[in-house]
Every structure is written in structure tokens, then in C-alpha cells.
Amino acid sequence: MKKKILVIDDDLNVSDYLASLFQDKGYQVSVAGNVKEGIKLAKAQHPDLITLDIEMPGEWGPRFYRQLSQEPDLKNIPVIVISGLSGHQYAVVKAVASLSKPFDREELLKIVDGILN
Amino acid sequence: MFKKILFATSATPASDYAARVAFNMSKEYSAQLNIFHVLGVPSRGFSQVVVDVKTKEKVSVDEEYLFGVTEEIKAYYAKYLDKGLDHTIDVAVGFPAREILRQAKDTQPDLIILGGSTGDEEDSVYKKVSAGSTLQKVAKSAPCPVMAVNRPAASFWGGMSNILFGTDFSKTSDKAFDFAVKLAKAMDCELHVFHALDITGLQSGKLTDQDEIEQKIREALRKIRARYQPRLKELKNYSMDVWEGIPFIEIVKYARDKHADLIVMAHHSKRRPDELDRLGGNVEQVIVRAGCPVLSVNK
User: Fold this and answer.
1) Is A103 left (phi over 0), alpha (psi -120 to 50) or beta?
2) What is the pLDDT at residue B135?
3) What does the alpha-carbon distance between residue B287 and residue B255 come to, in Å, rounded to a whole number?
4) What is the number of domains present in chain A?
5) Which of A52, B80, B202, B233 is 20 to 30 Å from the Cα of B278, by its Cα?
6) Confidence (pTM)
7) Of B152, B153, B156, the CB nearest to A60
8) CA-CA distance, B136 to B131, in Å (whole number)?
9) For residue B209, what pLDDT band results from cuts at 50, 70 and 90?
10) Under a CB-based contact definition with an 8 Å cutoff, are residues B12 and B121 in contact?
11) CA distances from B214 to B128, B210, B238, B257 (A)
């Protein structure tokens, strides 16, 4: 069964790129453009991994993480922060990794493969 | 709730994280933002020669220099100002704390936002273990609440929904509580009332008996209920907790546990006169360590 990745990013260019990157590696990908949509998809699909942008319209990424961590079924899903904001590595304390935009695709895939396989 | 915000900035990386919060708050609450920068300290008396806060060089203040600094601030914050924010930029010469307080007195903001100390940019043994002297002086005497954003982790603003109010049951804490309730009501936030039982003093010379600690926790919880619960009932969501340990550490831990967006505390009150300003006070330590902005109320 394919491992599922949820990409949360309001920038369509980034989310499309991430989706194609993960799909090429054989993962099943779903995309959310904001926190509300992200929570909805996380509850419906129980992904194996989430990539999370920080600055998004409305609620920001750390708010998503808070809501996620309050759901017993979802709180242990690993989260990778991918953001262009300075200091993003401090945004989600329990994130498994934090990458700056523009990120190195090989580095990201290595982290993802390490977590999911 | 916030109509006028005074953002006091050095326009250096030390203020970047506070800037992120200040600009986001202004946008979110449609507040007028006054960006205020103190150029530097006069080298002597009323001299127009100042030591520039950023470059540490002596410069002569004239209209051209003032214009240049204002343009520099505009350029530094261009990515935020492009978004059509209602803002003004003011610059002044003098000691930063004194000028910020003067500006607050003149413009009557609802909130002052301050960043980390410029001293944090240098190698210093005090780095990250003490709040800057400007912040301490402003927080102590400001006519309105002062929000401090010291760590990068405290800058991930995305609105407010979860407020932690830390109390030591002092009178100033009661004022801070009034403000926290007002804020929680206006912003429809959950409010967590928290007291950290200080067991560091209890332990001097002997290990404190656990029964004694738990008895003190129960007493503190009763005190919280008696003192704050009648007003808390005005809110949809609230909680009350007491943890034991080193107060500022427990407050930071509790805020992390509750995913607080904001910590509200009194500025403060129970400090002994002999305590060093530089390292004293739970609120200063919380400011330095918290993963969210800290709002201090002094009157």
C-alpha cells in the first residue's frame, strides 16, 4: 500500500512541485492550501507524513500543528516544516525536520524516505 | 482591541522577529502602526552629535540624516509596508528607553511592541539569559501593556486564540489578569490561568517533602478559584493550573504544553531591591525563553 503524504502550502507552485516530486517516488499525495483544509484532509486520510508551510493566509502553520497535536489519532504524524520565513526552524518544536525555501530536492527526499521507509 | 500600536525598533536583525509580530498584528486588527526608531544617544548634553545605535559611529544629526534614516527604515521593512498598512515612521534622538516612553506618552498607543536587545547580536555571556535594558525600563514604566518578542520562536504569529496568564497573586498580577480577561473576551480566546509554585526556596538545605508540595499546590489552586474564577466565568473556555518548580521555567513549559499564542504577566512587583536588574524577575526570564510573545502589564 502506498504511503500517504499531505502537503500544506498556500503557494500552488510549491505544492504542485512537492506533489510531483513525491508522486514520482511512488507516494500518494494530497494537497491543502490552508490550515482548515489541512486539518480536514488529515482527519479524513490519516497521512503518514505532512509537509507544512508556515506563513499562510488566515491561520499559520504552527496553529495547524497545535490542532493536529490535540487529535489523539493524528498527533504522532511526523511533520516537516518547509518555509521561506527566517527562523522557521523554531516554529514547530516537534517537527522532524525544517527546510528553507528554496529547498534541495535530494535532501528533502532523503528525509522523507528516511521517515517513511 | 488594538487600535494604535507603537513598534519600537532598532531596525536591525534584533528587531526582526518583533517586526513580524507587529506588522501582522497591525494588519490583523486594522491597527495604526507607529514605527519608532531612536537614532542614538547624544555624545554630550544637547549635542547634535549622536552615537548611532546601529553603526556605533558618531554622526551629526541634521535634516538630511533624519531623512536618510527614515528612508532606510522604509527600505528595511519594505516587504511589510508594501501591503498598504496604515503606518507612520518617527525617529528621535536620545536614550532609547526614555524616548520610547516619551513617544508612548505623546501618541497614547494601546500596545508597545519591542524586540530583543541589540546586545544579543554581539558575543556576550548575557546573551539569551537576560532581557535588554531598554525592554526592562520600558516594561517597568510604560503607560500601556508592553509586548516583548525576544526569540525567533516567539514570532510565529497567526492570530491569537490561546492565552496564558501567569500569576503570583500580587496586586499587579490582578491588573494583568483584568487585561488578560479583556483580551480573551475581545479575541474569543481560551484563557489558561497558571501559577508556578516556587520550590527553589523551599529546598534550601533540605529536600521538600512531597506532601508539603502537594498541600501548597492545593492551596494555590483554591486561591486561583477564589480570586479569578468569578471573572473567568465570563469566558467560554478557560482552565486553571498550578505546577511546582522554578517559576519561569514552569511558565515556559506550560505555555508550550498549551500551545499558547501569548503569555500575559505582571511586571513586577515581587522583586527584592537587592536583586540584580539584569537577571532578576520571572517576567524577564519568561520573555527571554518563551516560544510566544510575552505581554507585561505594569499598572
Assistant:
1) beta
2) 87
3) 12
4) 1
5) B202
6) 0.86
7) B156
8) 7
9) confident
10) yes
11) 32, 6, 23, 21
Contacts of B157 in chain A (CB under 8 A): 60
CB contact under 8 A, A66 and B17: no
SS3 A6: strand
| Domain span including residue A38 | 4-116
ipTM above 0.90, yes or no: no
Bridging pattern class, strands B4-8 and B32-38: parallel
Q: Which amino acid is at B60?
A: S
Instruction: Report the residue of A39, A90, A92 to disrupt the B interface, i.e. the one with the largest count of B CBs within 10 Å.
Output: A90
Distance CA B232, CA B251 (A): 19
- Residue B191 banded pLDDT, cuts 50, 70, 90: very high
Please report the residues numbered 90 through 119 in chain B whose beta carbons come closer than 8 angstroms to any beta carbon of chain A.
none
List the grid coordinates of B262: 501569548
Residue in chain B closest to A91 (alpha carbons) equals B153
CATH number at residue A87: 3.40.50.2300
Q: Are strands A97-100 and A28-32 parallel, antiparallel or unpaired?
A: unpaired
Identify residue A15 by its one-letter amino acid code: S
Backbone angles phi, psi at B38, to 5 degrees: -95, 120
From residue B102, alpha-carbon distances to A48, B83, B106, B264, B297 in Å are: 54, 29, 6, 24, 18
Closest CB to A54: pick one of B156, B162, B256.
B156
> Which residues on A lie below 8 Å from B155 (Cβ)?
87
Beta-carbon separation of A62 and B156 below 8 A: yes
